[in-house]
């Protein structure tokens, strides 16, 4: 019999890869990732850990996820696009009830982080 927790972890890793396949070629997000991520294997593995911790409560990611974003040149639009791509990837790859949790968590993080980012960097939305 398969291990349900390992199955969920591997679904999350698939979701992260599905998201980055779209994000890396996205006109808005792609250049930000290309300009900052030097080691993709390491970045994907950090993102796996982050989402496994967020969605399954397992202790994998032990850092502070928001501060690295402050050095990136972004606007609220980037967080909105990030949310849309994340929702699409979660919808494609995750089983319920994980899918619903990933979607609502991603939406609220994109909203909160977008507000925190624009407040802390003084950026205004690019229309
Ligand atoms: C609320 C939505 C987001 C979440 C939950 C999220 C999550 C994360 C996490 C967990 C990390 C790893 C931080 C670490 O090194 O420990 C990270 C890094 C990164 N994120 Fe995000 N992110 C979000 C939005 C965005 C957006 C909109 C962009 C724009 C393209 C972005 C670009 C990056 C980049 C380039 C890095 C690597 C930074 C570096 O180490 O040089 N993220 N993100």
Summarize the structure in words:
- This protein has 127 residues and is mainly alpha-helical.
- The protein has a single domain, classed as Globins (Globin-like).
- 69% of the residues lie in helices and 0% in strands.
- The protein contains 5 helices and no strands.
- The model has no long low-confidence stretch (mean pLDDT 94).
CATH superfamily: Globins
Structural class: mainly alpha
Distance between the termini: 52 Å
The CATH architecture can be given as Orthogonal Bundle
* Secondary structure: helix percent: 55-70%
The largest sheet, given as strand count, sense and whether it forms a barrel, is: none
Percent strand: under 5%
CATH class membership = Mainly Alpha
Number of domains: 1
Notable traits:
5 helices, Globin-like, binds protoporphyrin IX containing FE, mainly alpha, globular, 127 residues
Strand-helix topology:
Blueprint: H1 4-24, H2 29-36, H3 40-56, H4 76-93, H5 98-121
Helix pairs in contact: 1-3, 1-4, 4-5
The structure holds protoporphyrin IX containing FE (HEM).
In short:
With 127 residues, the protein is mostly helical. Helices cover 69% and strands 0% of the residues.
